[in-house]
Amino acid sequence: MIHDAIRLIFILMSTATLFSCSRLSLLVFIKPPAAFSEEKIPEAPDYSISQNWHLWQLRDQGKGIDVFYLHPTTYIVGKGWNQDLNDKHVNWRTRVLPINYQASTFSEDCNLFIPKYRQAIFYSFVDKKDNGKKALELAYQDVRNAFFYYMNNLNNGKPFIFASHSQGSFHSQKLLAEVLRDSAVLSKLVAAYVIGWPVKESFLQDNSHIKVCSSNTQSGCIVSWNTESANPKLSIVREFSNDEPILCVNPLSWTLNNDYVERTQNKGSLQYNKVTEKDEIIIHYCDAQIQDGILKVSPPDNQRELQMPMGKGNYHLYDYNFFYQNIKQNVKDRIEAYKDSLNCYE
């Protein structure tokens, strides 16, 4: 079932292979039929209602750390510019894809807080008019409201991890720029995993209160990367960075340097096995090296089985999967270091 969902999304997304002028006309097939309209936007979520959170039953498991996770775009084709939260199929797609392959990285150590939000449709990122901009702003307002509701009503003083991917990370930057100015919020932040969308160095310069993680145990800071092969057909960083320098942390070393890290340092990638029809961990899956702000990896052994709707060598959909076990271990390391730092002040 999960594999069928993956196949469906990638078939739909394949029309966006992608942003070059010669192929831009293909995007008309996933463009909403009408312009963005305030009168036709879906009903806003009330975050006091449990059902407006994915897996809300896992929000309170008695763990001392929370994770607030913002999922990527799973609303690919639709009549409106923003997802209706009553769309059961899109919600199901979100659960079996990004939540299963990304948010689960944190489930062993954290209570899960995953808001549903009126995500902007995929086409919004390439829309030449104001429709996409308006859709993304609407989605951001949900993200912001969800976070403030979480902090004011659900956090209960606990340390937390912030995690996101793609559209989630697009919104995260604006949100973190605001909320981390509050020292009370910043003091609770173990780390922020803002992955799958370019974090420009100019953004960090403009928001000096946001620190970059330069080691595997630093807390109160952010990490980010975008995964590609040496020569991808399309680079998200190149398309959306405007040639500005980009933050990149290597998840195999948790450093900012350009040193090559062999795949023997990869503790395991979470991959779907077509033969067994189950997810499995593949150790020593891929290497990694930072080059010009991009996380470059050699094509893995199962390259032919990977879904790459944005073109061969674009591993955007696997930013978490490729380094699944390394992220999981890093979560443990940062939590432990964060707790130790608190003990120093007792």
Summed up, what is this model?
By secondary structure, the protein is an alpha/beta fold. It contains 9 helices and 12 strands. The chain has one domain.
Topology:
Elements: H1 2-13, H2 21-24, E1 53-54, E2 66-70, H3 88-101, E3 111-115, H4 131-154, E4 160-165, H5 167-179, H6 183-186, E5 189-195, H7 201-206, E6 211-212, E7 221-223, E8 227-228, H8 236-240, E9 269-273, E10 278-282, E11 289-291, E12 294-296, H9 324-343
Parallel strand pairs: 2-3, 2-4, 4-5, 5-7, 6-7, 8-12
Antiparallel strand pairs: 1-3, 9-10, 11-12
Helix content bin: 25-40%
Please state the structural category. Answer: alpha/beta
What is the rounded distance between the termini? Answer: 50 Å
Low-confidence sequence ranges: 1-26
Q: What string, H for helix and E for strand, traces the elements in order? A: HHEEHEHEHHEHEEEHEEEEH
Strand content: 5-15%
Overall pLDDT score: 91
Largest sheet: 7 strands, mixed
Total count of strands: 12
Q: What is the approximate shape?
A: globular
* Assembly annotation: single chain
Number of domains: 1
Radius of gyration: 19 Å
Q: Name the strands of the widest sheet in spatial order.
A: 1-3-2-4-5-7-6
Could you characterize the architecture of this molecule?
- The chain is an alpha/beta fold and 346 residues long.
- The chain has one domain (2-343).
- Helix content is 29%, strand content 14%.
- It contains nine helices and twelve strands.
- The chain has helices at residues 2-13, 21-24, 88-101, 131-154, 167-179, 183-186, 201-206, 236-240, 324-343; strands at residues 53-54, 66-70, 111-115, 160-165, 189-195, 211-212, 221-223, 227-228, 269-273, 278-282, 289-291, 294-296.
- The strands form three sheets. Strands 1-3-2-4-5-7-6 form a seven-stranded mixed β-sheet, sandwiched between helices.
- It starts with a helix and ends with a helix.
- The relative contact order is 0.13.
- Mean pLDDT is 91; it is low at 1-26.
